[in-house]
Predict the structure.
Amino acid sequence: MDCIFCKIASGEIKTNIAYQDETAVAFPDINPKAPVHLLIIPRKHIECIADLTVDEEKLMGHLVSIANKLAQQQGISKSGYRLVINCGPHGGQVVPHIHIHLLGGRQMGRLG
Protein backbone atom coordinates (compact mmCIF):
# COMPACT_ATOMS: atom_id res chain seq x y z
CA MET A 1 0.00 0.00 0.00
CA ASP A 2 1.29 3.45 -0.86
CA CYS A 3 -0.48 5.36 1.93
CA ILE A 4 1.67 7.92 3.75
CA PHE A 5 -0.32 7.53 6.98
CA CYS A 6 0.07 3.74 6.88
CA LYS A 7 3.82 4.25 6.47
CA ILE A 8 3.85 6.61 9.48
CA ALA A 9 1.79 4.14 11.53
CA SER A 10 4.16 1.28 10.69
CA GLY A 11 7.28 3.35 11.47
CA GLU A 12 8.48 3.25 7.85
CA ILE A 13 8.27 7.06 7.81
CA LYS A 14 9.61 8.68 10.97
CA THR A 15 7.81 11.57 12.66
CA ASN A 16 7.32 12.95 16.15
CA ILE A 17 4.80 10.57 17.67
CA ALA A 18 2.52 12.27 20.21
CA TYR A 19 0.66 9.05 21.04
CA GLN A 20 0.56 5.44 19.94
CA ASP A 21 -1.03 2.17 20.94
CA GLU A 22 -1.93 -1.06 19.16
CA THR A 23 -4.76 0.55 17.16
CA ALA A 24 -3.88 4.23 16.73
CA VAL A 25 -1.12 6.79 16.24
CA ALA A 26 -1.09 10.58 16.69
CA PHE A 27 1.45 13.03 15.29
CA PRO A 28 1.79 16.72 14.33
CA ASP A 29 0.26 17.94 11.08
CA ILE A 30 3.01 19.02 8.64
CA ASN A 31 0.96 22.11 7.71
CA PRO A 32 -0.45 23.27 11.07
CA LYS A 33 -3.50 25.55 11.11
CA ALA A 34 -3.25 26.28 14.86
CA PRO A 35 -0.56 26.27 17.58
CA VAL A 36 -1.70 22.73 18.43
CA HIS A 37 -2.54 20.68 15.34
CA LEU A 38 -2.26 16.93 15.73
CA LEU A 39 -3.59 14.13 13.54
CA ILE A 40 -5.05 11.02 15.16
CA ILE A 41 -5.22 8.02 12.83
CA PRO A 42 -6.16 4.37 13.09
CA ARG A 43 -3.40 1.92 12.19
CA LYS A 44 -6.00 0.09 10.10
CA HIS A 45 -6.32 1.61 6.64
CA ILE A 46 -9.82 2.98 6.13
CA GLU A 47 -10.06 5.62 3.42
CA CYS A 48 -12.79 7.88 4.80
CA ILE A 49 -15.64 7.93 7.27
CA ALA A 50 -18.06 6.97 4.48
CA ASP A 51 -16.26 3.59 4.42
CA LEU A 52 -16.83 2.85 8.12
CA THR A 53 -18.76 -0.22 9.15
CA VAL A 54 -20.48 -0.99 12.44
CA ASP A 55 -17.34 -2.92 13.38
CA GLU A 56 -15.32 0.32 13.45
CA GLU A 57 -17.63 2.21 15.86
CA LYS A 58 -15.47 1.29 18.84
CA LEU A 59 -12.32 2.31 16.93
CA MET A 60 -13.73 5.76 16.15
CA GLY A 61 -14.73 6.24 19.79
CA HIS A 62 -11.18 5.31 20.76
CA LEU A 63 -9.76 7.93 18.36
CA VAL A 64 -11.95 10.63 19.94
CA SER A 65 -10.85 9.50 23.40
CA ILE A 66 -7.22 9.83 22.31
CA ALA A 67 -7.95 13.34 21.01
CA ASN A 68 -9.39 14.29 24.40
CA LYS A 69 -6.32 12.92 26.22
CA LEU A 70 -4.00 14.78 23.87
CA ALA A 71 -5.95 18.02 24.40
CA GLN A 72 -5.35 17.64 28.14
CA GLN A 73 -1.66 16.89 27.60
CA GLN A 74 -1.32 19.91 25.31
CA GLY A 75 -2.99 22.19 27.85
CA ILE A 76 -5.94 23.13 25.65
CA SER A 77 -8.74 21.11 27.24
CA LYS A 78 -9.98 23.97 29.45
CA SER A 79 -9.81 26.76 26.85
CA GLY A 80 -11.31 24.55 24.14
CA TYR A 81 -10.35 22.84 20.94
CA ARG A 82 -11.79 21.60 17.67
CA LEU A 83 -11.95 18.09 16.24
CA VAL A 84 -12.34 17.85 12.46
CA ILE A 85 -12.85 14.84 10.19
CA ASN A 86 -12.86 15.55 6.47
CA CYS A 87 -14.40 13.02 4.06
CA GLY A 88 -13.51 12.86 0.38
CA PRO A 89 -12.13 15.51 -1.96
CA HIS A 90 -15.13 17.85 -1.70
CA GLY A 91 -14.96 17.54 2.11
CA GLY A 92 -11.34 18.69 2.08
CA GLN A 93 -9.74 15.29 2.72
CA VAL A 94 -6.20 15.34 1.29
CA VAL A 95 -4.88 11.96 2.50
CA PRO A 96 -7.24 9.03 1.85
CA HIS A 97 -6.88 7.50 5.33
CA ILE A 98 -9.29 8.43 8.14
CA HIS A 99 -7.81 11.01 10.46
CA ILE A 100 -9.05 13.37 13.12
CA HIS A 101 -7.55 16.84 13.29
CA LEU A 102 -7.09 18.14 16.85
CA LEU A 103 -6.78 21.94 16.65
CA GLY A 104 -6.35 24.37 19.52
CA GLY A 105 -4.20 26.91 21.26
CA ARG A 106 -6.00 29.90 19.73
CA GLN A 107 -9.53 31.22 19.28
CA MET A 108 -11.22 29.28 16.48
CA GLY A 109 -13.58 31.00 14.09
CA ARG A 110 -17.21 30.02 14.17
CA LEU A 111 -18.49 27.59 11.60
CA GLY A 112 -21.61 28.57 9.71
Q: What stands out?
A: The helical segments are 4-10, 57-73. The first helix runs from residue 4 to 10. The chain has one domain: 4-104. DSSP finds two helices and five strands in the chain.
